[in-house]
Design brief:
By secondary structure, the protein is mostly beta strands. The protein is about 5% helix and about 50% strand. The chain has a single domain, classed as Porin (Beta Barrel). The strands form 2 sheets. The protein has a 16-stranded antiparallel barrel. Strands 16-17 form a two-stranded antiparallel sheet.
Amino acid sequence: MRYAFILLLFFLPLLNTYAQELNRREPVRYEKGFTVPELKDLMEFQVSEGDTVYIRFKGDFRIRYDDITAVQSRGRLRYRARFGFFVDLPSNFKVGMKLISSDAQGTSGGDPISGNTSFENNGTKKFVFFDWAYASWETNIGERIKTNISFGKFSNPFQYSDVVFDNDYTPEGITNNWIVNFREGSNFIVHAAYFQIDENSNTHRDPFMGGVQAGIDFSRPSKYHFFGGVGYMQVVHAQELTNDAVPNKNVGNTRTEDGVLVHSFRNLMFQIEATKYLGAWRKFSDFPVEVGGELLLNTAIENNNLGWSGFVTLGKADKKGRWEIVYRYKYLERDSWYEEFVDSDYGAEYEEALIGSGQGSGYRPGTNMKGSRISTRYSITNNINMGLIVYFGRLILPQGERDTMVRRWQYNIEFKF
């Protein structure tokens, strides 16, 4: 199966001739402004005469072959489908909704940190869930300050990598974001948010996360881009997050035999990213080289409380014919951060079941991990790209003498519209 998928990846560039013809055609426009009579006829929206409502559609479909090489290896075909619409209402209000594929997690909905669905169970009809469902309002204060507030289920506002939040994690709660432009190309940015993690029907001790991130963003077109930030995040009532309280996908945190978290999470976060554009080269008008890293420290405890990552990126696969290569190293100690927030693709081999984890031995993602990730991506057209991601993960605190290394290969083909 792996080799058949690799052959398919190499076959795709042969579509370039046909793709060039498609790119020469008039592009389809997915944004349209509707007048009041049109809205009343088509959608029966109640808006004032003279107002215009804009509706935008966006989506993507990705097919993946996922191969995990461990003591108990496995390979599987999976897909992720996303489709959303976004409505710009009068008076600077917006409403957004996005649907996503995912495997069901009992009666709680879909997987919170993955939109992948496996090919299995004799072609059963698959589930679709809400990935976004929010309303927002934004306004300008003078000429240099912009702010918005969103309520519902929305895209994660914090500018962190998957060492802090899995890329598929879309929280529920309230977020407020500020951008202060103090000169051309230079902004002061603040993100503040309240994430409701769970609702406890037996007490007012509902677990939630509160956080803030502030940073400076400098950019000069075709020259450079820089971002540096600091943040603080706290998970309140973490002891209510037992294994059966939320979907139990990751492991790593210290728990009692009953699955109760032993430690709290009060984290300082630091981040820095810098991009330099090196000028025209092949398909690139400005070839980018980016480096950066993150540091997180759980100040609630003194041991096993550190996490960090560093990366370097060459190129960017944002247009037809462009490519990118990314190397990232991760180090995430056992109680450095809440296990159910972090990357669900990055794991290692447990020789025995981790105490209180609610899961058995074998391959498990989460915290208590260290290792590398190498990814490459190529844009066949402006809307189609293919890529490969390779993970090399080990446990920081192994249970025995056996090697805990796991290699995970992900071959992707993605279509965007």
